[in-house]
Amino acid sequence: MNDLATLVEAVEPVEDRFALMADQRHSGLAKPQGSLGRLETLAAQLATIARVCPPPAVGNPGLIIAAGDHGVHAQGVSPWPQEITTLMVESFCAGRASANAIASACGVRVMVLDAGIAKPPADHPVIRTAGIMNGTRDLHVEPAMTVDECTAAILAGAALADRMIDTGADLLALGDMGIANTTPSAALIAAFTGQSADLVTGRGTGIDDRTLDLKKTVVADALARHGEDRDPLRTLASLGGLEHAALAGVALAAAARRVPVLLDGVNTVAAALAAVALCPDVLGYLIAGHRSVEPGASAGLAHLGLEPILDLELRLGEGTGALLAVPIVRSAAAVLREVAGLDELGA
Ligand SMILES: Cc1cc2ncn([C@H]3O[C@H](COP(=O)(O)O)[C@@H](O)[C@H]3O)c2cc1C
Ligand SMILES: O=C(O)c1cccnc1
C-alpha cells in the first residue's frame, strides 16, 4: 500500500452479525450464560473482526514499538535527556527492556520502527527505519511535521504492519518510545476529543508540579497555535510525533488486513484517535489493553468508547500494558473455539 487514500479505502467495517453468532454460541457452551463476562464480549469482537465465528485462534501476536524524538523536548517538558530514546531502542534490540521481558512472558514477537529518532540507533535485525527525519520540529512554535512527512510516517508504520502480518502476525499490539512524547499525546488527545489541555496533560515519566504547569501551558499554546483546523492529517502533523503517525499507520494497515489492534497507554491512544479520525471504520478493530495512569489515556478511551481490559496502574508505555492483555485476548478466542457445548456434556 503506497498511498494513504488507498490504505484508508482498504479498511472495511467489522461485521456485527458475527457478534450475534458469538453470543448464540456462548449461550450454548457448558457454563452458565454470561459467566465469562467481558471475555465473551472480547470474543464476539474478534468474530466481528475475522468475519467468522468462532474466530481464529490468536497464535502469533506481534508488538510494534514505534520510536521518535520531539522538538518540544527543548521546552523542558520531560526530565529525561533525548538520548534515552536511542538507548531504550538499543535495549529493545538487546531484549533487555520491560517490553521484552513481558513480551517473552506472553509469547509475543517484538519489532521496532525508528520512525524518527534524533540520534539513530545502530542497525539491528528487529529495527526498521522510516528514514524521514531525525525527530520532529517543536510543536510549541510550529507544526511538528509537514503533511508529507506525517504521511510518510503513517505509511512506514503500515509497511511494517504489513510485513509482520505477511510473516504470520494475527494480532498487533502497539508500543511507543520517545522522550517527551506524552506532550504531543496530550495535544492530540485534546484536539481530537475537545477536552482542555489542563484535563488531558499528565506527569508522563514523573514531573514535578512546576514542570506539569509548564507542560500544560505548552500544550495549550500548541493548541492555540494550531487553531480550529480539525482535519485529521493536518492535526496529526501539526501536534503529533513521528511515532504517533507510524502507529496510526500500523492500526490502519492491521484493520485493512482484518487483524485486531491492541492499544497500550496514552501515546498509543493518541495515535488511535488520529487513526479513527482518518478512518472511522478502524474503531471496530481496536481493543484497549489497559488504562494508563495518564489522564489523557482515559479521556481518549472514553472518546473512542473503549473499556480497557486491565488496570494495573501502569504508566510506562513501550507496549507493556498491551502485552499484558494478550493472554486475555488469546483466551477469549480459545473459549469460543474450544469449550464443549452443554448438549455435549456427558457425551
Ligand atoms: C528509561 C525510560 C524508559 C521508558 N520506556 C517508556 N518510556 C515512556 O516515557 C516517555 C514519555 O514520557 P515523557 O513525556 O515524560 O518524556 C516515552 O518514551 C514513553 O514510552 C520511558 C521513559 C524512560 C525515561
Ligand atoms: O501510560 C503510558 O503509556 C505512559 C505514561 C508515561 C510515560 N510514557 C507512557
From TrEMBL:
Catalytic activity: 5,6-dimethylbenzimidazole + nicotinate beta-D-ribonucleotide = alpha-ribazole 5'-phosphate + nicotinate + H(+)
Enzyme class: transferase
GO biological process, any: cobalamin biosynthetic process
Keywords: Cobalamin biosynthesis, Glycosyltransferase, Transferase
Protein name in UniProt: Nicotinate-nucleotide--dimethylbenzimidazole phosphoribosyltransferase
Pathway: Nucleoside biosynthesis; alpha-ribazole biosynthesis; alpha-ribazole from 5,6-dimethylbenzimidazole: step 1/2
Family: Belongs to the CobT family.
GO MF terms, alphabetically ordered: nicotinate-nucleotide-dimethylbenzimidazole phosphoribosyltransferase activity
Annotated EC: 2.4.2.21
Active site per the UniProt annotation: 318
Pfam families linked to this entry: DBI_PRT (PF02277)
Reported function: Catalyzes the synthesis of alpha-ribazole-5'-phosphate from nicotinate mononucleotide (NAMN) and 5,6-dimethylbenzimidazole (DMB).
